[in-house]
Structures are given as C-alpha cells and as structure tokens.
Specification:
Strand content: 25-35%
CATH topology of the largest domain: Neuraminidase
CATH class of the largest domain: Mainly Beta
Radius of gyration: 24 Å
Number of strands: 23
CATH superfamily of the largest domain: TolB, C-terminal domain
Largest sheet: 5 strands, antiparallel
Structural class: alpha+beta
Oligomer: single chain
Number of helices: 8
Low-confidence stretches: 4-17
Distance between the termini: 90 Å
Length: 424
C-alpha cells in the first residue's frame, strides 16, 4: 500500500509539472502573439524561440518565427530555415491564435517566396510563389495578380542587377546617427532642417535638427512637444522646415497628422480633416514648397487598387479640397506610397509595388509632361533598390541627390543609419 501511495504521488507530481509547463507555454504564446500583432517582431521573437524549443515539430510556431526574422533587419536570411520547415506541413484550415495549431497556413509558402527573393534566391522564390499560387481560388484575382507581379520581379531582377547605377554614399554627421536605429529622414527644401525617427527603448522618437555653421545641431526629441505616444512617424518636412507631416496607424486605421513650429516649439500634432482622412487607410503625405498642394496615399474606394496617390489643393478658406486620383500613369493595382515632389513641381518620387521592380516596394521617379500627364515611372535602379522593400527616399537638389536610411553597414554608427546620396 505504501508503495502504491508513493507511485501515485510521483505520477501526480509529473502531471502537475506538465500542467505548469503548459501554462507557461500558453502565457508565452499570448505574449508573443500580442507583440506580433503590434508588429514588434524583435519583442515577439524570444517568446516564439522558447516555445519552439519545447515544440520543435510545431509548423505554426516555425511559421511565426520565420515571420519575425523576415521583419528584422540583419536577420532576414534566418527566416528561410523556419519558413522551409513550416511550408512542409500546411493547411487551408489554419486557426489563428491557437497554440494547439500545429500546421502552418498556406501563406507560409508566400512568405518563403519573400524570404528567398530578399536573399537573392530568385529561382527558389519563383518556385515558392508558384506553389502558393496553386492554393488560391480562381476568384482571388487581387492575390493572383500580386503573386504574378512577384514572379515577374524575380525574373527581371538579375537584369537590373547587371546594370547598377552610379552614385556616391556618405553617412551624415555622427551627431544624427547614434547607436540606435535612425531612419525615415525628411529634409526641408532649403536643406537646412531634418526630421527623422530614432528607435528608443520603448518607442520610436521623432528627432529634429537644423543645419547651422556647416554642421547639424544636436538633435532634439520633439515627440513630447507633438504630444505623441510614440506612434507617429515622419512623412514630410515642408519648405522652410516649419511644417511637419506625420503618419499614425494603430494597426486598424491610419491617418495623416500635421504640426507647425511656432518659433520656439512644435505645436501638438493635429489630425487633418475628413476631406483627407477617412475611415480608410491614409498613409504618408507630402506638402509642396508653397504649401498649396498635398499629395498623399490612400486606399479609399474608387482607386486602381491598394494604396493610390491622390492630390488635394488648398482652398481659399484654408481647407483642403476634394482629393483627385493621380491616375493610371502613377497608380497600379498594387500599393503606391511615400510621395515626394521636388522643387520644380514636375518630378515626383514615390514607392510602388507595381511598375517595373525587383520585388516588394521600389523607389520610382516620374516627370509631368507638357500634356499634363505623368511619364512612365522609372525605377531609380539597383542597388538603391534591391529585392527587399525600398520605400523611403527623400530627394533634394532637384532630384540629383537625397537621403535614405540603410540597415547596419560596415563603418556605420550602429543599427540603421542615415546617408546622403548623390547620383552621378
């Protein structure tokens, strides 16, 4: 009898330990899912890693690990291993938000294609995209078109890489580039003011600096002045550097905000009114040097698909007029975003998933012709554009130069840094 009691105690203890382990895994899963939903991939990663160590055969967790790595600069090559494993066990009946889900969704094939493409493995990317295409219904026209666009981009990319453009690349002052990620630089038309993002410990801060006596002044964190919770991102620094356009999204909706510099500080950011911001997704905007024209991205109904670029004119009453779609010369069935119009008012730079690109977003330029139509957008070229998403380029000097940020490079200050680019 005594031996039986001891045996029952041992069995009960083992069951309790397993139960506690399951609770810890479930709690870690909830934390990981929360960060993933917010797009905080670096924060989600260690939770998924811990779960995967305990459940190495779970294709759903492998899929999520792959997603995290695919969205972390400097680690995107590591996504391949996990997405390859996830794509070996896929289902069309995937249940989001369940640790009991052990298979991956069909989308694992799509993201595997992305991982291959970003890492210059174009033939493998086309194979993965083609496999994913086979899982789509014939009625899913939008996704079928997008997959075909990615396959075409993988076909075209090697030829674009064979003809690289010529430019010089110069890291901006160390006073702007610190050991954190510094990105999304926007420079005023006169070149004397810059705003950009810096990744702080708990949020992304908006930094501002002026060019004085041949150097940039120590950047100021203006996030508190804007009364931002760290969820606003810079889009445009207008004219003389006294008007700032911002974008704010909460993973459900995105709107365009603005702030003015009153001579001593930045005013609290204000959301633009309903002619511009709707219940749809308004991404990034640009205000021309004279302040009379706003160009912005929106997925409102009536466009050509995805995000389109629209133009609004400032009215006599100080309000923005009804936006007009920029037309099929600029907009495609896919996303267009991040518009910048240089000082001549006739040359537009923007990011697009359509047109002739290398996959994902590329930067393009287009010129207004004398008949009032925009010219066929021109890809600014490899290696400024590459197989990854290239969504941000702030042109200056009539488009002959500009600012971009790049992930950590040899000789950089650490993390993503801001660079000045001069086309040859």
């Amino acid at each position: 009898m005594k031996r039986l009691v001891i045996l029952l105690v041992i069995i009960s203890a083992g069951t309790l330990c397993r139960s506690q382990d399951n609770i810890r895994l479930q709690e870690a899963f909830y934390d990981a899912e929360y960060f993933l939903m917010r797009g905080d991939y670096s924060d989600a990663l260690p939770y998924y890693q811990g779960i995967y160590a305990a459940m190495p055969d779970n294709a759903s967790i492998a899929f999520r690990l792959g997603l995290c790595y695919l969205n972390i600069d400097g680690s995107k090559n590591m996504a391949i291993e996990y997405l390859e494993k996830a794509s070996q066990k896929i289902t069309g009946k995937y249940r989001e938000g369940s640790l009991r889900q052990t298979e991956a969704p069909y989308e694992a094939l799509f993201f595997l294609g992305d991982a291959y493409r970003i890492n210059y493995m174009f033939e493998k990317a086309k194979e993965a995209y083609s496999r994913y295409r086979q899982t789509l219904l014939p009625t899913d026209i939008e996704n079928l078109m997008f997959i075909d666009q990615q396959i075409k981009a993988c076909t075209d990319a090697p030829a674009m890489m064979a003809e690289p453009i010529k430019f010089t690349l110069e890291e901006v002052d160390d006073i702007l580039n610190d050991n954190n990620d510094n990105f999304f630089p926007v420079v005023s038309a006169d070149g004397k003011s810059i705003a950009y993002m810096t990744s702080m410990k708990f949020y992304d801060a908006i930094m501002f600096s002026r060019f004085s006596r041949n150097e940039w002044t120590p950047p100021a964190n203006i996030t508190p002045e804007l009364q931002s919770d760290g969820d606003h991102y810079v889009s445009c620094l207008a004219a003389d550097g006294t008007v700032l356009l911002l974008s704010r999204d909460d993973n459900i909706n995105s709107d365009i905000w603005t702030s003015k510099y009153d001579g001593t500080r930045w005013e609290p950011a204000q959301k633009l009114k309903k002619e511009i911001n709707t219940r749809y997704w308004e991404a990034h905007g640009f205000i021309t040097e004279d302040g009379s024209t706003l160009i912005f991205a929106s997925d409102r109904p009536g466009g050509f698909g995805g995000l389109d670029l629209y133009v609004s004119k400032l009215q006599g009453n100080g309000e923005w007029g009804s936006p007009v779609n920029m037309g099929p010369e600029i907009n495609t069935p896919f996303n267009e975003d991040r518009p910048f119009l240089i000082r001549d008012g006739r040359t537009l730079f923007f990011a697009s998933q359509g047109h002739h690109n290398m996959g994902g977003y590329d930067i393009f330029s287009s010129e207004m012709q004398y008949n009032g139509l925009w010219s066929t957008p021109k890809n600014i070229g490899y290696p400024l554009n590459n197989p990854d998403d290239n969504i941000f380029f702030c042109p200056i000097e009539d488009g002959k130069a500009g600012y971009m940020s790049f992930p950590e490079r040899d000789g950089g200050a650490g993390g993503a840094d801001i660079y000045y680019i001069k086309f040859k």
